[in-house]
Amino acid sequence: MDSGSYARTMSEQQLQLSRKERKMEVERYMTPNPITVQPETSLRKTLELLQTHQIRHLPVVRGKKLVGIVTDRDLRQLLPSPLATPEELERFGSDGARVKVRDIMTRRVFLVSPDTRTDKAARLMVEHRIGCLPVLRGSTLVGIVTTVDLLRAITGEVRSHPVPLETRSRRRKVLEDRRAPRGEIRTVNR
Asked: In angstroms, rounded to a whole number, what is the distance separating the alpha carbons of residues 156 and 148?
């Protein structure tokens, strides 16, 4: 093999690797333009957003600047128990309107850029035991990548567009109505 064909082969390999690396960038799997809340948003409104849009993480922004993140777990820790008395539920109702996101949000937020590799994002999430990473281009929030998004990267599934809420609701109803075929799910006791 002459040096020209070796150089060409190396360039082709580098190009293929470069294409493969681009396929594994966060931008390809993130949810673009995520729903956000402001620090002054009430907990009640925040809970409504999470439930309505069937999401678990909300970036907190002041103007266009990311200042924190609030999760469904943050809110669940504040919600009364399902066994709560009517008085406790009523008290949360008034507190939920009075308490603001700024009072419970996480201020120390780990970030990635759109060109961050998915394996690096996954390592960061595992290392810090977090379920999502806001994606910033410069100082602008452009997306959010979650554990589900990274599972899509592993399986090769690419989200071409968000699934409409009515489709998700219909899909959930179908799945609830359908029983798993017998014998498909197995557990092993050791």
From this structure: 12
The DSSP H or E segment spanning 66 is strand 65-71
Question: What 3 state SS string does 11-49 have?
Answer: HHHHHHHHHHHHHCEHHHHCEECCCCECCCCEHHHHHHH
H helices present in the chain, as ranges: 3-23, 26-29, 43-53, 72-76, 86-98, 118-128, 147-155, 165-177
**Single pTM value for the model:** 0.67
Express each pLDDT in 150-166 by its tens digit: 998 888 876 654 544 54
Residue 44: which of 84, 103, 117, 3 has the closest Cα? 103
For 56-78, the pLDDT digits (tens) are 999 999 988 999 999 988 888 87
Which helix H or strand E contains 61, and what residues bound it? Answer: strand 57-62
- Are 121 and 133 a contacting pair, CB within 8 Å? yes
Q: How long is the chain?
A: 190
- Farthest-apart Cα atoms in the chain, separation: 84
Decide if 128 contacts 110 (C-beta within 8 A): yes
CB of 109 closer than 8 Å to CB of 68? yes
